[in-house]
Write a structure and sequence with these properties.
Shape: elongated
Order of helices and strands: EEHEHHEEEEEEEEHEH
Largest sheet: 6 strands, antiparallel
Number of strands: 12
Distance between the termini: 23 Å
Number of helices: 5
Strand order of the largest sheet: 1-2-12-9-11-10
Radius of gyration: 24 Å
Structural class: alpha+beta
Helix content: 10-25%
Length: 251
């Protein structure tokens, strides 16, 4: 199996898996969701809580805040514990407690985003707690999942009627002809081709037919912020390889 990056930014990835099977693609999808280790709040010790919010409610909100994870720490010390502390008495009529207000015992393990609201406090109310973060995996709880919207689809092969009049100039290098159709077997060869075809589908949906290559599969996902999309993909591959090796050693 080979992999080709179709789209990649700081939070999202879209990767083409070449010469693969749905079973292998789904194994990779499940590894991304369930096997990649990340930090998340697993226990909260409350010392003072004058707010109207129950301890359990605040603890749940804290657990769902994604924490940046350093995979070097994971490999060196999988039992590492990080404490996120907070202590404030509200001085304004309304004060919002954000994820960025938490103080971490490890500068490498901090909330992925600073502006995630946790609760509101009224003037005079005090909240003090220590949130204990541990390493875990998505198969144990969703709070440890490093990615969201993880899915895959077969690779499309487009047949576009010549009479459609669609502007396919970005696809000039990857078009072949067959009777009354223009065939695009691999839109990745031409920059902007996929967007041009999508525009044609919206304007004249009946002029575009789609077949699917079952040995080419597009995998897509969005990082929660705990790891970069690249780290998620590479660690999921590493976890799969480890499981395959273990399986082979036992048969």
């Amino acid at each position: 199996m080979k992999a080709k990056i179709l789209n990649l930014d700081s939070s999202k990835a879209r990767i083409l898996l070449i010469n693969t099977t749905p079973g292998l693609a789904n194994s990779l999808r499940r590894a991304i969701i369930a096997e990649v280790p990340t930090f998340a709040v697993d226990e909260v010790v409350f010392y003072v809580n004058d707010t109207p919010f129950f301890d359990e409610y605040i603890a749940h909100r804290l657990a769902m805040v994604p924490l940046k994870t350093d995979l070097n720490i994971v490999k060196a010390n999988p039992d590492r514990v990080v404490v996120l502390s907070f202590d404030r008495r509200a001085e304004e009529d309304f004060e919002v407690v954000y994820s960025g207000d938490l103080t971490s015992s490890d500068p490498l393990i901090v909330p992925a985003y600073d502006r995630i609201p946790i609760i509101k406090m009224r003037k005079g109310q005090r909240l003090r707690f220590e949130a204990i973060a541990r390493l875990g995996r998505g198969k144990e709880h969703a709070k440890w999942q490093p990615a969201a919207a993880v899915g895959y689809t077969y690779f499309p092969v487009y047949r576009i009627r010549k009479e459609s009049g669609c502007d396919l100039s970005p696809c000039e290098g990857c078009i072949s002809e067959e009777d009354e159709y223009l065939i695009v077997e691999d839109f990745t060869k031409c920059e902007g081709c996929e967007d041009a075809i999508e525009g044609c589908k919206k304007e004249k949906p009946k002029s575009v037919e789609i077949a699917w290559r079952e040995d080419w599969i597009i995998l897509s996902y969005e990082s929660t912020g705990s790891l970069t999309p690249e780290e998620i993909f590479l660690e999921a591959i590493a976890q799969l390889k480890s499981k395959f090796s273990e399986f082979l050693s036992k048969i």
